[in-house]
Amino acid sequence: MDGPNYLFPNDNSPGRKVIGHAANQSIRPYNTNQEYLYAMREDLADWFKGLYAVEINVNNFFEILETGTLLCQHANNITTCADYMIKHNVCRWTGFQGKYVRASSFFARDNIANFINWCRHEIEISESVMFETNDLVLRHNEKNVILCLLEVARRGSKFGVPAPVLVQMEEDIDKEIELEKEAKKNNRKPPNPPQQKVTCDFKSLDEMVQYILGMCTCPSQFPMVKVADGKYKVGDSESLIFMRILRQHVMVRVGGGWDTLEHYLNKHDPCRC
């Protein structure tokens, strides 16, 4: 692997590889702390559409979910796939009202409550990402609805239920980290990263990262160092962060979840803060 590639706009000094701007990329601007959830909602909508052939998209996402029917259908899908859980009576099916349930009706609220109860007691989703009925029905806490559904998708993936793209990328990154730890423990050269489940064009990723960094025109720019494909050092930290492309978004793996690069920079770049 070559030396680090420093991603600084408008710097053509020797020894630094400057990646060209991706002027033709359509990158959604993020202007508030909440808009990064758009990318997650978009991914979840495509996932539900592929699993259940339902006409759901990023714009009608909450309207489709607020009857609770699709949520309970998905809970039962996970339960069906979890043979071990069924045999040991660990996880039970969720009863729900199916067709012709109106949003905000008693039956819709009952469906949502059943799904929440299933999340809390059957697969033990952490309270930190749980939501309540009004969080979905009245949109009191859309963020936790999204985060809870991603966590449910992670649990379902362990039992063979197809996962959203974000969860697939998490699994790829976690596998890469484990292989590197194992190599370091045994004093071996780290292996090449495992083949991505989700194809990522790292050249396009570099261009999109450069484009977003180029939005800041300060003389002293927030440093970002590429150390490998999809892997960067940011600011003064020695810690590595992982980035991936999700449709037109650049996503940053943070902790157990995700952020958009723009929102991440808005929180960590002193200039943007």
UniProtKB/TrEMBL annotation:
Annotated PANTHER family: GAS2-LIKE PROTEIN PICKLED EGGS (PTHR46756:SF18), TRANSGELIN (PTHR46756)
One biological process term in Gene Ontology: microtubule bundle formation
One Gene Ontology term, aspect cellular component: cytoskeleton
UniProt cross-references to PROSITE patterns, sorted A to Z: CH (PS50021), GAR (PS51460)
N-terminal signal peptide: none
GO molecular function: actin filament binding; microtubule binding
Domain GAR, residue spans: 200-272
CDD domains, per database record: CH_GAS2L1_2 (cd21268)
Location(s) in or outside the cell: Cytoplasm, Cytoskeleton
Keywords: Cytoplasm, Cytoskeleton
Species, as recorded: Ciona intestinalis
Location, primary (coarse class): cytoplasm
Domain of life from the UniProt record: Eukaryota
Protein family according to the UniProt entry: Belongs to the GAS2 family.
One Pfam family named in its UniProt record: GAS2
InterPro entries tied to this protein: CH_dom, CH_dom_sf, GAR_dom, GAR_dom_sf
Calponin-homology (CH) domain location: 38-157
Protein's recorded name: GAR domain-containing protein
